[in-house]
Design brief:
With 235 residues, the protein is α/β, with parallel strands linked by helices. It is built from twelve helices and eight strands.
Length: 235
């Protein structure tokens, strides 16, 4: 199975206000909280592997049932080390998966394949409109510093919570509650933007509305329709 286990079905570019977030439905959006990977920065683990491994072997490596890759990533995101992750994969799945995981970690920067088009300008437009812009991302402490150095947008937000540093991880409600408290913002003023449906469910459980992301231009128009005064796309 490729991708993170437990991912539910969910439409893209639609505001979700379920669970504890129902009471926030229709209220003004005053803060937007962004995930990082594949929302602000493109992340593609395949790009790391193909210079050394075949497409067939790479596909198997990125199948969690075969290699435990996504479970290892989750362990890193909550504060584990790369050495611990490789050892756990070696014990449970053996080779070549442990060796490939070690290679992946050592060449992680190659997985950061560019900014997500349109998002830097959107973030700046939101800031100009007086909207709070924040970050909340699952990311390992060993792997985040090069990303922050490569992509200034990750430092240009008002503040950010990165899971590995606080040892909490999406989609669990506690990291959303921790982030709201740290940012000093009420849950019903915030919209959380993430490419994974499970994390939108987590945000809703903490009282935050959420939107599953796959297109910066659709997100821009959705925010405009929600009442945020930012420029639209000229046609």
């Amino acid at each position: 199975m490729k991708g993170w286990p437990g991912e539910p079905e969910m439409d893209y570019n639609v505001i979700k206000s379920e669970d504890a977030a129902k009471s926030a439905e229709g209220k003004p959006i005053e803060n937007v909280v962004f995930d990082f990977g594949n929302v602000l920065v493109k992340w593609d683990p395949q790009a790391v592997m193909l210079p050394r491994y075949s497409q067939e072997l790479t596909d198997k490596f990125l199948d969690n049932d075969v290699s435990g890759f996504y479970d290892a990533s989750d362990a890193m995101d909550i504060g584990g080390t790369s050495a611990e992750a490789v050892a756990a994969v070696r014990k449970q799945y053996g080779e070549p998966w442990a060796d490939m995981l070690d290679y992946y970690f050592k060449n992680f920067v190659d997985s950061l394949v560019g900014p997500v088009e349109g998002m830097r300008v959107l973030v700046n437009d939101l800031k100009a409109a007086g909207i709070g812009v924040w970050g909340l991302s699952n990311w390992a402490t060993e792997l985040f510093p090069p990303a922050k150095k490569m992509y200034p947008i990750l430092s240009d937000l008002d503040d950010a919570v990165v899971s590995g540093y606080v040892k909490l991880r999406k989609p669990h409600r506690d990291i959303f509650e921790f982030s709201l408290k740290r940012f000093g913002i009420p849950a019903d003023t915030a919209l959380f933007v993430d490419d994974k449906a499970m994390n939108i469910v987590g945000a809703n459980s903490a009282g935050m509305r959420g939107v599953r992301f796959n297109d910066s231009y659709k997100l821009r128009e959705m925010l405009r329709k929600s009442g945020i005064d930012i420029p639209g796309i000229q046609r």
